[in-house]
């Protein structure tokens, strides 16, 4: 017997989550502020709750996917009496501090809040490779982990309700900044007639090599250095790299494209050099990040 689940929020993510639960034979109740978004899911077997109180009454497990945490208060606030005994699993974006406060709010109303950050776009939900960071009371995941596994691998990171979001944001920052760097590089090369397609093999090679073993395995190299607190720069000093970063700004300006991103990087490197890390390696930049 598969467990009942309620999905609150039917944007691209919540709607796909509801479809995924339905495909796994979980009796699924849905609710959305704009009620008409539930209709295509009803056609696939979902039950449309007439009110948020009905949606909460339908399942102990309530998965929330909305734009932010304010949306949760706006949606659930009018039905706080129906929260008692519910396990709210909120996979919406927010700040860790906001999530900690939301956990207290849920407790005050007799509910348990599990916070999460889902590491998949809508087409990846429930597919191999998708995973979700969860934090909050582990006992709630002991009860509902089997159902939640339908969305992606359950990755529990700790009882601090803010922690799943911190992991999620750390991953998202890496994702956005890496891909924005890629787009800056393409924009720069395009000014000399090189297409994105021409550049792709080189970009893919660098991204791959950073995460693998070998002389370019800087994810591993920097991790070892950060753990040891030692940033040798004898072979490639930060001073040398700060000069190189300033040249990327110059190249971008000369090519007539935006300079904000490389300038921010150059300024960060120069700040670390000014703080005394010129002879150290790239890993010493973390010292400037820790002490703004
Ligand atoms: N899309 C992705 O690739 C992706 C990947 C990972 C995580 N996420 C996260 O997943 C969450 C949902 O994302 P999404 O792409 O599905 O769409 P979204 O545009 O972030 O959220 C849409 C949902 O939020 C609801 N909503 C917004 N304001 C509301 C309010 N004040 N009260 C009640 N409901 C409100 C919308 O209701 P209405 O339909 O009534 O407007 C809709 O159900 C976000 O927090 C996002 O950061 C997204």
Automatic annotation (TrEMBL):
Domain 6-phosphogluconate dehydrogenase NADP-binding: 5-158
Sorted UniProt keywords: Oxidoreductase
Domain called NADPH-dependent reductive aminase-like C-terminal: residue spans: 160-291
Transmembrane segments: none
Family: Belongs to the HIBADH-related family.
Protein's name according to its UniProt entry: NAD(P)-binding domain-containing protein
Organism name: Actinomadura vinacea
